[in-house]
Design a protein that fits this description.
This protein is an all-alpha fold and 562 residues long. The protein has 18 helices and no strands. It has 3 domains: 199 residues, Up-down Bundle (Growth Hormone, Chain: A); 223 residues, Growth Hormone, Chain: A (Up-down Bundle); 118 residues. The longest helix is centred in the N-terminal third of the chain and has 51 residues.
């Protein structure tokens, strides 16, 4: 019987292993964001629903930092520490994909989205485990090349899951594509993960009398304290929080909007697959070029140029659609529009040039503003917030297309993508000797607490008086959801960075959970609408008043440190 090699035992093997592992991260993303999204549009699902579907795919990645303590603390002596997590998550990725075969579409879209949300939660866990394995397995002289290969693997995976599946759809059918994607993931599990053998040292774990749950809780608490201190500790790091939450350049030609438009214009699956493949290859090449140019000409200067470059194809596509009288979404299945399809090709390829140039340069800027003392914590959280920004963009764009039409949505996207440039001058590089918190850290916390408090209080009149059938109500709801997530995190931060009584700490935590639960009001039955509305108003008002009060208190955990 042929014995497969342990790839972690050699330099070439390690590079190959992490390249292949990152392919398994890219395949589901390309599959859902391109192949599934395009098929949903062909079934008549609207752009707003597809936008929400794609957004749900990114949400678990926005909170992947929370899985770090679990991966660190819970270990298997038999199967290996990170290897056990990778193997388990890959099996669950395949299992959840196979479950989708029995979900009818489009009538079962809610269940379909829910299963994919679980699927991506396991994907985010896998990413944490793979990165942890890489840190512990790669030598210092291997990490640069390995990271390049890992990103390349993710791009290749997206091309396989998106373009590859679209090419094969005529032969496998839509349901058969789930089997193909699951088989691709399990192939990596069999050929790469199963033969792996981690170093024995990675199996050792010292809990010092604590249970694994206590150890995980303590590690997560430490992560949270460091994250809040690092975000609020300097002007550059604080500006970078908003920089991460804002779109970095226009995004519409890389998300569900582009696929929905392509289907409406009459592009067949094979043509859409070709567009996806060429745009992915273009973006991949430009990632390398953009990094080289930014190193020589200045990262912030080139990032501003690349970001502006991304808006031009979006503006161009909006102008083309307006000139042809193509305003609102149209039902798929009509006669193809070759002239508009050609312009979409031009705009999408040009957009991917700018996006590729921007990609690595943006990451380098975040590295510059990350405090070396808490580099892992702070940088991981920035990357997570960028995924939250993508989810938010996919959501509002789908809503805006149905409310405002394609040209105006593209115009707004092109303008919104430039907002982050206003923060670039504030994001000076952090030196190695920089303290964790400067003299203004507590002041920033007070300002943020009060601002979030006002947003929570503002939700009450909005919920009571806004027209629930209004064209822009979906976008407003999405904005308030983002504000509630930030407010919940800030309430939790207060329990760590302020001196509060046990009762005050419990109040902060319960109200934080209440703010997050407000999102569930859309699933409440109609007969309970009045009660649910009253509860939402009470929670938002109480949280707003508490945040205003916390904004006036002393933040002892943010005092200036050497």
């Amino acid at each position: 019987m042929l014995r497969l090699p342990n790839l972690l035992a050699s330099r070439k093997g390690r590079l190959t292993a992490f390249f292949m592992l990152y392919i398994t991260e890219g395949i589901p993303l390309g599959f859902a964001a391109t192949a599934v999204a395009s098929q949903l549009r062909r079934m008549g699902v609207g752009p707003a629903e597809i936008g929400a579907f794609v957004a749900s795919f990114y949400l678990p990645w926005a909170f992947k930092w929370a899985f770090g303590p679990m991966v660190d603390v819970f270990r298997s002596q038999r199967f290996g520490h990170r290897r056990a997590w990778i193997m388990g998550t890959q099996l669950m990725l395949a299992a959840t994909l196979l479950l989708l075969i029995w979900v009818p579409l489009p009538q079962g879209l809610a269940l379909f989205t829910g299963i994919l949300l679980i699927h991506n939660t396991f994907g985010a866990m896998q990413d944490v485990a793979i990165d942890a394995l890489a840190v512990n397995s790669l030598g210092e002289d291997e990490r640069g090349l390995a990271n390049g290969l890992m990103f390349a693997g993710a791009s290749l995976g997206q091309a396989i899951g998106g373009a590859g599946v679209l090419f094969l759809l005529p032969y496998t059918g839509f349901q058969g594509s789930f089997v193909l994607v699951a088989a691709a993931i399990l192939m990596v599990t069999t050929l790469v993960v199963l033969p792996m053998r981690e170093a024995i040292a990675s199996q050792l774990v010292q809990l010092h009398g604590r249970s694994r749950l206590q150890a995980m809780t303590a590690e997560m608490r430490g992560f949270a304290v460091q994250a809040f201190q690092s975000f609020l500790g300097s002007r550059a790091a604080f500006a970078a929080v908003f920089f991460a939450l804002l779109p970095m350049g226009a995004m519409s030609l890389s998300l569900a909007l582009q696929n929905s438009l392509a289907v409406e214009l009459g592009m067949q699956d094979s043509s859409l697959a070709q567009l996806t493949l060429f745009s992915s290859l273009t973006s991949g090449v430009c990632m390398v070029v953009g990094g080289l140019l930014s190193d020589r000409l200045g990262q912030r200067r080139m990032l501003a140029f690349y970001t502006a470059l991304m808006s031009l194809p979006v503006l161009y596509m909006g102008w083309v659609l307006h000139s042809h009288g193509y305003q609102m979404p149209r039902a798929p299945g009509g006669a193809p529009l070759p002239a508009l399809i050609e312009q979409l090709w031009i705009a999408t390829i040009a957009f991917n040039v700018g996006m590729g140039l921007m990609y690595g340069t943006r990451t380098a800027v975040f590295m510059d503003v990350t405090n070396p003392r808490v580099a892992g914590t702070q940088f991981t959280a920035y990357m997570a917030m960028m995924n939250l920004a993508i989810a938010f963009a996919a959501t509002w764009q789908g809503i805006a297309v149905e409310a405002l039409g394609y040209p105006l949505t593209l115009l707004i996207d092109a303008g919104a993508g430039l907002l982050g440039l206003l923060l670039l001058p504030l994001m000076a590089k952090i030196g190695p000797a920089t303290g964790l918190c400067d003299a203004h850290a507590a002041g920033r916390a007070r300002i943020m607490a009060r601002a979030l408090g006002l947003l929570c209080l503002g939700f009450v009149p909005y919920l009571l008086y806004a027209d629930p059938a209004g064209a822009m109500v979906g976008i407003a709801n999405t904005l308030f959801t983002l504000a509630f997530v930030a407010s919940a995190l800030f309430l939790y931060a207060a329990t760590l960075l302020q001196t509060l009584s046990p009762g005050q700490q419990r109040l902060c935590r319960w109200l934080a959970l209440g703010l997050l639960a407000i999102y569930l009001r859309r699933f409440a039955p109609a007969q309970a609408e009045v009660l649910v509305q009253a509860l939402c108003c009470a929670v938002a008002a109480a949280a707003g008043l508490l945040l205003m009060q916390l904004g006036g208190r002393v933040w002892t955990g943010l005092r200036q440190q050497a």
